[in-house]
Amino acid sequence: MDSSKSKDSTNSGLQETNSDINDEEKNDLCPGFKDADAFVKYGLGAVLSATKASAGLPQTGDEYDFYRSFPGFQEFCESQGDKLLHCMSQIMQHHGCRSRMRDRNKLTGLEERFDLVVDSNDVILERVGILLDEADGVNRNQQPVMPAEFQPPKIVVSSWNRMGSSSGSRSETFRLLQAKNIARPQMKFKEKVDNSNTPFIPKIFIKPNAVKPLPSCKLLLTLMFFPSVRPEDLDVPAALADFIHQQRTQEHVEDMFAHPYQYELDHLTIQESVLSKPEPQMYKPLTETKCSFIDTLDDLVALNEKLCKLSEFAVDLEHHSYRSFLGLTCLIQISSREEDFIIDAIELRSELYILNEAFTDPAIVKVFHGADSDIEWLQRDFGLYVVNLFDTHQASRALNLARHSLDQLLKHFCNVNSEKRYQLADWRIRPLPDEMVQYARMDTHYLLYIYDCVRVQLLDFNHGQPGLLQSVWNKSKDISLKKYTKPIFTEESYLELQRKQKRSFNTQQLTAFRLLFAWRDKLARQEDESTGFTLPTHMMNKISEELPKEPQGIIACCNPVPPLVRQQVNELHLLVQQAREMPLLKPEVTMFGPHDTSRVSESDLQHCSPDGKLDTLIRLIILLILELETQNDHESLSVAQMKARRIIECFENPFRMYLPSSDVHISKNAKFDPSSKIFEVIKEWKLLSMEQQQKELEAKKEANKKAKEEAKERTKKVAGNGVKLESAKGGGKKRERVASEVGESTPKPSKKQMKSAEKPQKTEPPPKDSFKPFDYSQSDLKVFAGTKSKDNTQFDPNRQAQGFKKKKTARGQKSNSGAGNRSMSYMAGKSDRGFRHNWPKR
Ligand code: AMP
Ligand code: MN
Ligand code: ZN
Prior knowledge:
This protein has 35 helices and eight strands. It is elongated and about 105 Å long. Zinc ion (ZN) binds at residues 316, 318, 443. It is found in: Cytoplasm; Nucleus, Nucleolus; Nucleus, Nucleoplasm.
């Protein structure tokens, strides 16, 4: 009984302290104690004696049961228990937690109380964590961050590109360099970023070096966005009207999403000159090399002209992804053998397309190191493509070098130590600190020399045979064929992420995860922030796992609390509440939940079959579904089959993904094939079933073929031939160019000079009969400008897509403000890109 007494006194001690805190918390940190240390000392002592005392209590089992048989003991236990519960309730109340500790339901009471204690402990501990962090954060913030008072960071960062694949101690050596006060560059973008949940449409409007012209996309897009506009209503010649009509067919819609340089890349032949052994040309020392920072249009045009005269140049990009939904390219570094250039890709974002002139010139080699992302970023932000790419990363792989990072190549070939990098620096910073310019510049400065060296080695490696070198060219070409795809939100996207988490969630947790995922996606697009900034996945996991009952609990799951979470905590709270209202099913059972495919993930299917029985059951059900899907004749079904069908019909078939791939909508392959996503969307636009589309397509194809022939004949008469010939300067060879641009012939700087003759022209001549480009120079494109937003029937991808993305309404409304919001820049009045008849005079 001694032990109980000491526990009693501990309780009242805590109680006093607690109420004291209530009364005086504003005045004093630890009322009744001279400082925090004294309080901690006292607290620890109290906890220690309480623990000791509880250990002295009769053990559960026989000992306890024996004591319980004495009424005195029983009474004492109850009164002490009540006191304890009262005390705990008070503490919980003080912290704003649910605190009905004293509600006594003998059956479920203990379990519930235990839950309450766990919840409260978490909330309190998290709050402690947050406070400590805040205290810590205050200290950290005192150090100035870039750029104004720019200081070289003590811990310098390095690229994944350079560090090789071993990620061992990365966290120690990498640090995210942030500048907290950077104005969002998005604010001054001429064309608003298109975060809508629609597939990416290539931004390109002018296609230099075209062998196959662009699908007459400006018209097509205009018509897609204003589907109510009938070609006959436009003041266009009949032939053009016909043509427009045809453009509205499925085929052309698909064309629109295609890689604009697919044809050119498919027909690109590597020049003999780059397959033979070069004499490595040493790089110029950095200090003797001119480095220009390009941030005006005039300089960019001049740069383009310079580049067009070269036979090779090196390119690299710096990118920022934290404070933007899709990410944004901040810098483009270019090096020739003579000079380095750093382009401010934020400032010149809507002008950079002019570099396509050099970037897609098949006679100019573009050397990148690890171009995969670069290729996508160039497309996404500027509509830039690369024809004739050489990727030194691929070369390093083919050579079987120990490591393939640029760091390693620099060390290996140039004996340059470039370990220390600003790779994760915030490249949006302007003006760009000189240190960062220097670092950025190093990424391309040596690359052409490395290009020479690896070519020599690739040939030597293969005993002078070009096979290995050729394979690097081919791999590089594959990379330049990569298409940027926008992240598309579907009702199932969260499952992909959830699967990666390797946690098994019950129905409530999974629902929370699903709702949070959708909230995060929507808000991130709307605010143009990354999902990681909006709500990092690990926090999303924690909230889903804990399903906090109070908004405060949600805050407690996040450390540090993301600004958007703090702002919308009530909204999030409602989502968590909604999840809590789901019937609680363990993962095993979840797959049978009606109408909720969210409960079925492949990992669930795997998890929930410890003994294989479930696996078998699933297989049987799949077989049954397959059988029933193919058996349309209800009459011939057995009673069991009918029953099964009825059951299955109650479900939104969670096994669709296992059905044969002929069903495009559900095919697993198709799911991961970006072009089929597009297909899905197109399907939504057309609101047709696949079969209907298929049939319609077949029928149309035939008719179109005929009509096309006729229309082309007519358009030819109306608009003349779009093929333009230019003579190559300084040489006898002629180079055919196709004016694929809309509304005018190829716009190019008037002083543009052609490639020098020593660059062999390997590109096949355009297949004359398959491509007869239409020349719009005769048509009055201004007619499209006037039709803008007059009627509500204008195309709104969000609205159209709602059929399968019902959660997107808010976003849809936001982007409804006008099609001009999209990244496409063909709207007169919204942007002059594509309408620039001549590039700026120099
Ligand atoms: P690099 O090609 O190495 O210059 O890298 C280009 C861009 O990729 C950088 O500006 C970063 O945005 C990004 N990046 C490079 N290294 C990493 C890394 N280790 N982790 C995340 N992003 C990186
Ligand atoms: Mn790079
Ligand atoms: Zn770089």
